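Before the break, one more example. Copy the sequence into your notebook; we will annotate it together after we see the structure.
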Amino acid sequence: MITYIIRRVIGAVLMLLVVSVVTFAIFFLVPRIAGATPEAFASRYVGRTASQETIQLMAQRLGFNDPLAVQYGRFIKGVVVGSEYDTGTSVEKCPAPCFGYSFITQQPVWPDLLDRSRVTLSLAVGAAVIWVIAGVSTGVLSALKRGSFFDRSAMGIALAGVSLPIFFTGMISLVFFSYNLGWTVPGGTYVDLTVDPLQWAYSLLLPWITLAFLFAAGYARLTRAGMLEAMNEDYIRTARAKGLPERTVVVRHGLRAALTPIVTIFGLDFGLLLGGAVLTESTYSLNGLGKYAVDAITNNDLPKVLGVTLFAAAFVVVANLLVDLLYAVVDPRVRLS
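Here is what the structure looks like once it is written out:
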């Protein structure tokens, strides 16, 4: 078990390194192949309003005239030990981990990522709790009551949940629950958990439900399919023949076996959400990582875009690592070696 964990951790670190190489190549190698000049890269750092002379000077100072291997090594070094950026009038220090320095806002990217991640983490965790409980419970009940009115109704609602885009359900929910009924706060409201936990939950209630509705629908359908397959297995009939209570048969034997694909999908979904729920944050005007990325793209702020991309990729890799370690807990048939 320990050997497996060490091997998976090493694999995750190597995967993060590969992700950094691929991300760096997408942002710097592909545009260069397409004909982008060092000055074009520098303009993404200093903004659209900078003069041509300023852009050429910054391209030289930022090292965009160096080979790509040297630029990548400088970037990785900045992540590990920090970096310094010569702006001409001063030398700006970016402490480790340095995911870049925005010359538009005159701030390192990493503190912004940490600050915005609190909003995204709050949104993702709350929605994940709701969609897992609602989706798995609905899927189990639908499988046990196959062909019933509840099964058909639940799967019909699940189909609608998967089909409707988040910006549509989000806007409808805002109009109905916030502006007409006044049950929830309107968009753009966020209270930090450490300030007021109750107000924190109240301010995120509608985004949680809206986001959870999208994911719970898919989880309900997936759980139903897994339960239908698991409940027809021989070990289920054996468990019933031994006289075990039906609740024990369903939960400990049927559901536990059906949860393996759920855990896999949950790791991917949760990791992606931690990287930024773009549509949800934009719909409800929440200043999380998703909205941060959208604003960075709008302002042509390359360091922020690169930082968010690597930050999101790290979440996905870590989430997949945790999923692999949870397999043995969820499904006793899985053996780690």
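Residues 110-330 form a domain with the MetI-like fold fold (CATH 1.10.3720.10). The chain has two domains: 2-98, 110-330. Try to locate both features in your own notes.
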